[in-house]
Design brief:
411 residues, mainly alpha, disordered N terminus
Length: 411
């Protein structure tokens, strides 16, 4: 039996063994773009599964770190004024906490009162709506008969009355449930501010710790990638928070002060929340305004004035204010955005729909780093060329017979 190697001989043996293992390892391991994409997709799928399973427990931490990311640039500006980090955090976080407490203490109780009143009066509003529809149908009986429609709309709608009332009650109960869920999670009222405060104090330390876990050879690449994702995500959230607050304020002033529409505060709160959902939030707000104005017994002229006034407000925000505050489009196709909204709402509800677009934009940045063709512009003329080719191979066209060749062959 050979003796064990010691000293320099043992070191040489380990070096030779490491060289042999390195030589037998595939050279392309971890460098193939396909394998990197598969690893990335697997990791993202695992993260999504964990979030879906433990979303209720993770949500306060997500909210806290999102708030910390939004407030961190303000703290950095205060630090440039030679203020210590803890003083800057105390100023920024104190102002934010005081403003949130004031707004919540004033708006939430009044919104709850209006929502409960709407739920109690919903049956009467439905009866009034059916009576007005029936009166209109009786006045236009000849037109309805010529179109082979029922003359009494109330009879036609009575069979669906319970379904309509149940749907309306479901919407109102959903709004009440949203406020009730917020009130029932009293622990969040303490947990989220404490987590946000700790995250703000040690925000730079957390970021440095994450980069320290990355191997030194890839540290700069990961830092650049995190920087791009952070700019997209944080700027979107910060701008969206400002814009949604302004939308709610403008809607409340327009409907409550100018038009004196009942339940204006509830609609304003819903507008501030729903406007955060791209593509469908603004239209949902308009539909809610028209529905409330109609069900509370206002005439057609009033409803049209309310509709166009709210439409003008939303268009000003969509075309002028939001692009400047949020920073324009996030660089994803509307189909991709709608797909992200659907998946986010299915997995995580309303918070998932709000965060769907910035998360999709962040994933596009990450995927573009591993597969640059996703974000690179196509060569000039390539879209038309590929569109003409299509996805399926075309059959070769039959060449028409040559008259000269055919004539020559017959002779």
């Amino acid at each position: 039996m050979a003796p064990l190697l010691v000293g320099d001989d043992n070191t040489a043996w380990r070096t030779a063994r490491h060289a042999n293992l390195t030589a037998t390892r595939p050279a392309s391991m971890g460098k193939d773009p396909t394998s990197r994409i598969l690893i990335l997709l697997t990791s993202l799928g695992l993260v999504a599964w964990v979030l879906a399973v433990a979303w209720e427990a993770i949500l306060p931490f997500v909210i806290a770190f999102a708030l910390a990311a939004v407030l961190d640039p303000l703290i950095d500006r205060l630090q440039r004024l030679r203020l210590p980090r803890w003083v800057a955090v105390a100023l920024a976080f104190g102002c934010f906490l005081g403003l949130s407490a004031a707004v919540g203490g004033i708006l939430v109780p009044r919104a709850l009162v209006q929502t409960k009143a709407l739920s109690a009066n919903l049956g009467g509003y439905l009866d009034r709506t059916l009576d007005s529809l029936d009166a209109w149908a009786q006045a236009n009986a000849g037109l309805l008969r010529s179109l082979r429609l029922p003359v009494s709309l109330s009879d036609a709608l009575n069979q669906y009355r319970e379904n309509i009332a149940a749907a309306g009650q479901g919407v109102v109960q959903g709004v009440l449930g949203m406020f009730g869920a917020t009130a029932s999670r009293l622990m969040w009222v303490v947990l989220i501010p404490v987590l946000t405060l700790y995250a703000l104090v040690d925000y730079d330390l957390f970021r440095a710790r994450v980069l320290y876990l990355v191997p030194p050879d890839h540290r700069q690449t990961v830092a650049d990638l995190f920087g791009q994702v952070g700019r997209v995500f944080v700027s979107y959230l910060r701008g969206l928070l400002i814009v949604c607050s302004c939308v709610g304020l403008a809607t409340g002033l327009l409907l409550g002060v100018f038009f004196h529409l009942p339940y204006a505060l509830v609609i304003a709160v819903l507008a501030a929340i729903l406007y955060a959902i791209p593509y469908i939030g603004a239209w949902t707000v308009l539909a809610t305004v028209v529905l409330v104005a109609w069900m509370t017994g206002h005439h057609l002229g009033y409803i049209l004035w309310v509709f166009f006034a709210e439409l003008l407000v939303l268009q000003v925000f969509d075309q002028v204010i939001t692009p400047r505050v949020v920073g324009g489009r996030v660089g994803i196709h509307p189909v991709t955005g709608l797909f992200a909204l659907t998946v986010g709402g299915w997995l995580f509800g309303l918070p998932g729909m709000v965060l769907a677009v910035p998360i999709a934009a962040s994933l596009k940045v990450v995927a573009g780093h591993f597969y640059p063709r996703l974000v690179e512009p196509m060569p000039e003329g390539a879209p038309r060329e590929y569109a003409e080719r299509g996805f399926l191979p075309r059959r070769p066209r039959k060449r028409p017979p040559d008259p000269d060749g055919g004539a020559g062959g017959n002779t």
